[in-house]
Design a protein that fits this description.
14 helices; MetI-like fold; mainly alpha
Amino acid sequence: MKNANHYGAKTAIFIISVLLAILSVMPFIIMIVNATRSTTQIQQHAVSVIPSVYLLKNMKILLGKSFHPAVGFMNSLIVSVFTTALATYFSTMTAYSLVVYEWKLRDSFFRFILAVMMIPAQITMIGFYQMVYKLHMTNRLLMLILPAIASPAMVFFMRQYMKPALSMEIVQSARIDGAKELYTFNHIALPIMKPAIATQAIFTFVSSWNNLFTPLVLLTDQKRYTLPIMISLLRGDIYKTEYGAVYLGLTLTALPLIIVYLLLSKYIIAGVALGSVKG
């Protein structure tokens, strides 16, 4: 009887997991399929899993609307890659200083970071834009990248992960062997933090890639537009919105995110397995 209940519970869990997986993947499937359909087909039946034959036509419409996917892709890629690199590296370094070093205002500094996390980015946008404007740095991708160095939420996450993961004995041994502090951080702390870095790298890359608000405020030059800005402009047609072209643009925007997730997912799985072993 116990075995029957056990197998029944496992079957129920398996069925629920399959249904949740289908629900998670279905929006992407519908988006990709709609990229091959015409506007009329989408308006008549918004949900379909059967591809149509209008992919090339949608591509022509997309490229005819001053949509430059290569330009938008490169701008988004530059911003997202450098934002992710800076945010993960310097946030991990900040968390390292909060865990490894003993200094007078350490706890106060950490509480300050927690306080900054509570402030929405939209509140500071006016002041940030005024500063950028006075520095004559509008229409510069650099101003979308540099603020990523200060990422309070990521510092908090890295600190919480590092406290149980990084052994102080290893750090002390490296110091006794004559290793410099930067060498210890780069060659001992960073490899241990790989699962956490990969997790935050995915979140940061996705957030930066999908970011519309900040680029829309700072960028007015079409040569500097990112993909989200270009996609938002596709619905600005006065007479008719070509939904097939819009879905195709969304598909082109989403593909890099899927690739990044597939490349880094093994580190997330490793991090979950490591956490379960420690627990």
